[in-house]
Request: fold
Amino acid sequence: MSCNCYCSRRIIAMDDCIFCKIIKGEIPSYKVYEDEHIYAFLDIKPLSKGHTLVLPKQHYKGISDIPEELLCEVNKVSKRMVSKIQKKFSPLGFIICQNNGESAGQTIHHYHLHIKPVYEGTVIPDETDHRKELSKEEMNSIVNDLIEEEI
Ligand code: AMP
Ligand code: ZN
Reply:
């Protein structure tokens, strides 16, 4: 598969990636959106009505290797999908997240953004119990570590 637009990238699929197979049409999906770069479909095991996955057609594992411009495209489409879901199903809010790395819960290693509508009664994991306040020194030390690091 190749891209016809200005970027003229070849869309490289990973043979063992289930999302690449979905994009190529080898595995069925409940597609809700497609353009040259982006594909979106309903999560097979949704948290709630309209739980959607938005991903680049090109295989990238996570936030560190996806190009910034493609990340913008994923977010643009996600914003439009949020509007659609809002109009049609009127959720109270949305959780937008991306599990990055196995230890963070990523099970499919093809970058994808989750759009999870939240309705009355939707059970969302509460991690506030596991948070803790840090001292000013600890907070400042983290700030210093981060601002001295070149991006
Ligand atoms: P993550 O744990 O962030 O990698 O999310 C992977 C998501 O993909 C999970 O929420 C799964 O329910 C979903 N999923 C896995 N296989 C399929 C599939 N064939 N079609 C749609 N969603 C899928
Ligand atoms: Zn893939």
About this structure: DSSP finds three helices and five strands in the chain. Residues 103 and 109 are 12 Å apart (CA to CA).
